[in-house]
Every structure is written in C-alpha cells, then in structure tokens.
Design goal:
2 copies of one chain form a homodimer.
Chain A: H1 4-13, H2 15-21, E1 24-30, E2 34-41, E3 50-53, H3 59-77, E4 84-91, E5 94-96, E6 101-105, E7 110-113, H4 115-123, E8 126-131, H5 132-143, E9 151-156, E10 160-166, E11 169-171, H6 201-205, H7 207-219, H8 227-233, H9 238-246, H10 250-274, E12 278-282, H11 291-306, H12 308-313, E13 319-321, H13 328-338
Parallel strand pairs in A: 1-4, 4-8, 9-12, 12-13
Antiparallel strand pairs in A: 1-2, 2-3, 5-6, 6-7, 9-10, 10-11
Helix pairs in contact in A: 5-13, 7-9, 7-10, 9-10, 10-11
C-alpha cells in the first residue's frame, strides 16, 4: 500500500502547479442531517452533487458518512482522482483550520475531531476545513462573480451568522468568532436561543424562530391559512411560513415583517462596523427574492434614510442575494481548496 | 533655497535606516479649538508638548497654526531636526492617508486640503495623516504596551467612534468608515446627532449629549447641585456633569447611567462583530476610572452574563482604559511615523 500521507504532502508542496494539473476540488457541506458533496472545477462549475444522510451516532461514523459522500461525488463527477487538488469541508461549528480540527459542533455531536488527518489518510488528498458560513463567504468571493474584496456575507437559515471578507481574505477575529451577529442580543429577555441567550437575533429571525412565532400567533387565536397544517402536524416549519407569506397570508407576513426588520437592523450594524463594499445574503431563507427579502430591503431603505454615514457605505443596490444559490454549500467548501 | 521636496523624498526612501538614525517623530493632534504637538521618541517618550489655538478662519491659516505648533514642538523637544523621521497628524474627519489629503473635516472647516504636500514642502520632512481616532488606536497599539494584535479602540469624547486593529494593522473598511458605531442609531427618533441622524449613539452618550441630558433634567424640575451653575451659565459641560457625579449627585449619576448602558451595548456589539482580544477605551470621557466607566463595566458584566458567545471573546478584564492618557493625541499621531 502506498504511503498516502507523504503523497498528500507532495501535493500540498506543489501549489504552483496544482491548479493547472489538478483543476478539480471536492466540496463537502457537512450538515447535521445531510451531507452534500460535489466535484467543482476552478471556474466554479459543479460536476457532481451527492446527498447522503449524516450518521451522527459516533464521530467515526460521521467521518465515514463524509467519506462515502466524497467517494460517490468523485465517481459521479467523472474527474480522474489524479486531477483533484484537494477536499474542502464546511462544518457547522467552531473549527481550527490550521490544525484541521473541529473544536465543537453541536449539530454533529463533535468535540475535538481531527477531520483533516482522518480524511487525508483515507484519500491521500490534502484536506481543508472551515466553519460552514465562513466557507459560504469564501465561495461567494471566489465563484460569485462579485470581485469585491470587502464583503459582509450574512447567512440566514436555521442559524444566523455573518462572515466578512476584508481585502480578499476571511476576517476571522481572534477566536474565529467575528461576525456572530446571530448570537448578539437584540431584545433583552426575548425568546431563548440555541446558544442559551435570551433574545439573540437568531432567536428572533432564524428559521425555527419564524415557525415558532407563527405557532404562537395561531395559539393566541389569529386566523391564517396555516391553521390547518398546524392542527394536523402539531408544528410548523419556516418553509410553510414562507409559502403562506407568498399567498399573502396576513399572519405569515407579520411574522416575516418582524424578522425582516430585525435583520435589516443587523445589516445596518454590520455595515457601520465593517464598512464593506457590499452585503450578500446567503442561506436557505435567502435563496430568492420574496416576502422576507422584500421586508429586509424596505428595512435597509429606512436605515439608509435615517443614517447619513450609512449612505456613504451602502446603497440599496449594495445588498444582493448570493449568486451561488443551492450550490453554495459545495462551492463554499471547494473554495477552501481553490482560493 | 534648497529644494525641500527632493530632500523630503530622500528621507522617505531611506526607511531601513531612519528609525536608528532618526529616532524622533513629531506627533500633532489637530483639534477644532486647539492643536497639540510634541516630539516623541521610538519608545513613546514625549519630549515636548506645545498647545496652540487652531485658526480655522481659512484652510491656509489652519495649516499655518499647525506649522507653528510643529516648529515650537521641535524647538522645545531639543531634538536635532536631522534626527526627526517625520511628522504625523491626527485629523478630526475623513482623510485619504495614501494621497495625504483631508477629504472633509467639519471641525476644521476643511474640504479636500492637501495637508501632506503643504507640510512636506514647508518642513522637508515626510508627513503622514490619519483620522484622529484611527491615530489613537495605532498609538495605543504602538506605545500602549498591550502587545495585542486584535483590539477594538473606542474613543469617548465630543464624538464617539471605534477603530479596530486587526493582525497588527488598522482595519479601515472600504471607505475608511469602519467602526463608526457613534453614528449608528441606537434609539430611532431619538435626539439629533451632529451627523444629522436621530438617536445615534453619539447623540445619546457623547460629551455634548451628557451636558444636554443634564440640562433637560434640570429644566424638567429635577434637583441637583448643577442647578446653580446652569442658572449662572445658561448651559452645562460634560466635565461639570462628571464632577457632580463624583460628588454622587443623583441627577448626574442618572445621566451617566443612561449613557454608560448605551456604551456597554456598543462594546457588546463591537466585540460580537470584530471578535477582538481586548477593548480599549480612549478619549476625554475615559481618562480615568470613575462614575461613567463604572456603569460601562457594570453594563458589560450584564452582557457577559446574558451572552454565552460573548464570554468566549471577552472577560471583564478585556476592557481597559488607554494607557496613553492625556498624551494619546500626540502619541497616536507620532505612531503614524513610528509604526
């Protein structure tokens, strides 16, 4: 059996040649319920997409699910393994990219897992990992066609977090926590957040918060087309609230109005602190223009009107949706290799 | 008459030798009412301090006041002009450090003034300028003994602004406006700010806001030891509010309580966005521990208790006052040469 580790090192040392000789990267978006992996070329074209459920029973089982997804993605991508430069992974949690370790991921049930070493040994390819939102920001910068060196990327999904690209590089902060606006308290004493805080932005405007707010309104007797679904299922999802809002359901629109106004204030604060060239919305709640992004744009318009200095930083056009759409996870992870 | 411009260029080209051969810098803190200039050595020792009134009648007159202060500071500093590496200036406004131009300073009544060229021609020494709060942050980083590469510097005075040192460099943002938390609206529809906004942090917690809040409370009939001064002068200063608070005057303490709580929230937001190693308070309102910093520390303690992620970034000890005290202006400006 060849020594794969030394082979991997050789790849890493030949950086100058790799992009031409090995134009592909494998991008892996590791989620708490599913793993999405794909082969990506240097132009950001996605050549395969594999989706597998995440086995979170034990860290090693999770690593095996990841390895399966990678293997299948390479096969489906039709790229010769020798043309693959490396494997990039976006992880929902705190990572140490230098050491290639996931320090903590509540979703994956991981604590200090040496992801990089395990995968490099398994595949003989160099491997890089990052926090999933950081990967999303880098993917947007690398493949999103923005060409803006200063960008705030705000990911709206189950979780809410911002990441900043400054002078073409990820701004990590001193603990890798820069941009944690989702866990900044906006309403002291407000609803409980996954982090334990009360009234964090994420607990006001993340996916589960939207569902919960709709449920609370239904329970207090407000009428809505969501009533029937709620009675039938005993709960709602953010997607269902979005669908109802598209049908102009008043309750759903009110839920998105509240959340969108909080998000617009978050964008105001992020712009006034980081002074970016643009703000890009990513994540599952911002895949397309719709009732939520409409409220956010209206909210941003209000802050632009109210704040002279903000007008020197942003225009309404400085806020845009991620160009990467549903491939953002794969592309973000692949950017860790291609950047 | 020697060609001073080419002499100046020669100095700029001999960067490698300058620190040893020319260990001194002139630091100039250009304010709207006074100019403070001093000669500073590479260790941050201040060898002279000259204070002159600022002539803001015409831009050229302002430049002449600055030149007078520099000349007197050099004479008083006892350093041979040939031992001076350059002149640094902290300017209250927007500057373009690359071109050496002050784009806009309301306080100085300046609009596109070519400060660097004018002074280099006048003195035959290389000249650098920066926004005054940016200079303050760099001064703290260079001479403050912090040795922390990631720092949020929050200046509390007539104006309020934060500046960020990231990996040992000033984080400017894409328009030089990063850290403008003072002009971020904290109370929509609140008191009018110098920027034109309503309810900006500066309009709630800057020096003039403290005085105005005390006046409003007096006018509404609240009793205070400030009553007599207010009746006599028709107005109050922030200093008088501070003095009254030190005497445990209830009105003054309430004014500082309100302002301090807003400032603590600002520190929370700055820490959650920039993820620094420490937060340093500078400016005239934070020269020493007292009633205001006490409220700010209590407020930060509250946010630390409430916000799990903030506890991964800061401890109560991560907040400290600038080590540079009253020389912060001179040292910040000198840091532009010594950094």
């Amino acid at each position: 059996m060849p020594d794969r580790r030394s082979e991997s090192r050789t790849h890493m040392q030949s950086d100058v040649l790799t992009t031409r000789e090995r134009p592909f990267a494998v991008g892996v978006d590791v989620g708490g319920t599913k793993i999405v992996a794909g082969v990506v070329d240097v132009n950001g074209q996605v050549h395969s997409r594999i989706k597998l459920p995440t086995d979170t029973s034990k860290p090693e089982m999770t690593l095996r699910s990841i390895a399966n997804a990678i293997e299948q993605a390479i096969q489906a991508g039709g790229a010769s393994p020798s043309a693959i430069q490396g494997i990039g992974l976006g992880i929902p949690g705190q990572v140490d990219p230098q050491r290639g370790i996931c320090l903590l991921s509540v979703n994956l049930n991981w604590h200090n897992v040496a992801v990089k070493d395990w995968l490099e040994q398994r595949f003989g390819l160099s491997c890089a990992l990052e926090n999933d939102v950081s990967a999303g920001a880098l993917g947007e910068y690398r493949y999103g066609g923005a060409a803006n060196a200063d960008m705030v990327y705000l990911s709206l999904g189950t979780g809410i977090a911002a990441r900043v690209i400054h002078e073409g590089r990820l701004y990590r902060g001193s603990h890798g926590l820069a941009g944690e606006i989702g866990h900044t308290i906006f309403v002291p004493g407000g609803p409980r957040c996954s982090c334990g805080g009360l009234g964090c932005l994420e607990a006001l405007a993340g996916g589960p918060a939207l569902a919960r707010n709709a449920e609370t309104r239904l329970q207090s007797g407000q009428t809505s087309c969501l009533q029937e679904t709620f009675v039938r299922q005993g709960r709602l999802s953010a997607e269902q609230v979005f669908e109802a809002a598209r049908l102009e359901d008043a309750l759903a629109l009110q839920v998105l109005e509240e959340a969108g106004m909080h998000l617009a204030y978050a964008i105001n604060v992020l712009a006034m602190t980081f002074d970016p060239q643009e703000v890009v919305l990513g994540g599952g709640l911002a895949l397309e223009e719709g009732p939520l992004t409409e409220v956010i744009r209206r909210g941003l318009h209000y802050w632009l009107e109210q704040t002279p200095i903000l007008r020197e930083i942003l225009t309404p056009e400085s806020l845009r949706l991620s160009a990467l759409q549903r491939d953002a996870g794969i592309l973000g992870a692949a950017a860790l290799i291609h950047i």
